[in-house]
Fold Probable membrane transporter protein.
Amino acid sequence: MPDPSFLLIAGTAVVLGAILQTGVGLGLGLVAAPVVVVVAPSLMPGALLIATAVLPMFTLTTEWRHIDWRGLAWGLPARIPGSVAGAWVVATADRAALGVVVGTMVLAAVGLSLWSGRVRITPATLMAAGAVSGLTSTATSIGGPPVALLYQHEPAQRVRGTLAGFFLFGVAISLGVLAAAGQLHAREVHAGLWLVPFVIAGFLAGRRLTRVVDAGRMRAALLAVVAVSGAALVAQSVL
């Protein structure tokens, strides 16, 4: 069993992140990752990826009819090379510098989204979002913003269902690549499994939030969460 203080602090962050992701489509990583980095940096990113893999399974039980399967077909294969690059970052590169760069890019993308028109969902943009998502998810456990920005103008149910599909298969890819590279350790898996009950509690509590964002507030909520995600990446990287 992990240290009780870890379960209390990280578990609380996971519950709050799961509530947010259940309503908006993403948020578990951005809320919990900076907390886990502070209290148990040696457990990142594996422990949080294990916990993150569970939530999309529950989301898909209610949103599977709204998945953009074409988007998954183009975006998920591109996540594989991105995940390989992320595993290399975990093994050799400076993750702090990567977090600052990616976080800054996310914030810039949010600003451009508010300033200009929408980015079309095409095979090229889906592959680009999938690759970047794979890199950032594998290296930092925060991989939702690239795909979320691409789908920000879509209906709320479509956003949640499609992001859940990306997370479910994408996190499996990230975990597989980390394991193959020798960067996924038993301690991380063990700690991640202990966080699963907190994920379930957050999902059950977050179902009410879907009513709020479904009432025409999805894009504002999504951009707010993505902006906080970018700021969290920068903050996490400089801690």
About this structure: The chain has one domain: 4-238.
